[in-house]
Amino acid sequence: MLVDSHCHLNYKGLVEEQPAVLERARQSGVTAMLNISTRESEWRDIVATAEREKDVWASIGIHPHEADSHPDVDLAKLVGEAAHPRVIAIGETGLDYYYDHSDRERQRQSFRTHIHAARETGLPIIVHTRDAEADTAAIMAEEMEQGAYSGVIHCFTASEEFAQKALALGFYISISGIVTFKNAKDLKETAAKLPADRLLVETDAPFLAPVPHRGKTGEPAFVADTARYLAELRGEDYTDLCETTGRNFYQLFTKARPRMWL
């Protein structure tokens, strides 16, 4: 049960040949894909893909890069759009202080709004964080005190300290193809120690193609390469890791959609 917990099937590089991309994923053993939205203009197409493909699911959210350009995406809009039965997550959202494409205070406001939507809908939140560990952890903890919610730190590249804070809040951690990169020493060390029952794998396709596909357009089929590498890194059997991460995916994302099945 191999799952790509985070991909962008409607992005340039994949959408032009989406049927072939999906077939290659299935041939590689991928049984489910979560297709992530980053801006409002994508929502309709992403949900339509999930309606059309039984092994593809959708998220509703605004990426921190897009926070400035979406001042009208409020709690009511997120909750309303997330009511669709093929939507199983809120996000991706979070903080990105590396590029600062949006004002930091606006990013923080948007992040909290998404958390409120996750709490209201019962759907997990997908968190992006880059060069913003302290603020991300603080907001997550503060909001958890206001009421429980669940989620995942996607494409994890942060410190082990941040990982422990996220785990303590009940979050899952998703590992991407970055773990296969030569210069990812700290990430490898952290990934090797993450608890198996909180671990997910992803591609973030069309980005971050893992070894041995560096330089190519990433696609969901490549999650198999990341899972194989991660299994070897952790001293685990590949099939067992696929089963564990797949089971974790269903445990996290089916809470508010109990009839979800493939």
Overall mean confidence score, pLDDT:
96
Order of helices and strands: EHEHEHEHEHEHEHEHH
How far apart lie the N and C ends? Answer: 11 Å
Sketch the major β-sheet.
8 strands, parallel
Derived from helix and strand composition plus strand pairing, the structural class reads alpha/beta
Tell me the CATH superfamily. Metal-dependent hydrolases
Estimate what percentage of residues fall within beta strands.
15-25%
Stretches where pLDDT is under 50 for at least 5 consecutive residues are: none
Question: Can you identify the CATH class?
Answer: Alpha Beta
Counted up, domains total 1
Q: Give the CATH topology.
A: TIM Barrel
What characteristic shape results from the CA principal axes?
Answer: globular
How many H/I helices?
9
As a whole number of angstroms, the C-alpha radius of gyration is 17 Å
Please name the CATH architecture. Answer: Alpha-Beta Barrel
Number-wise, the strands total 8
Q: What is the spatial order of strands in the main beta sheet?
A: 1-2-3-4-5-6-7-8
Helix content: 40-55%
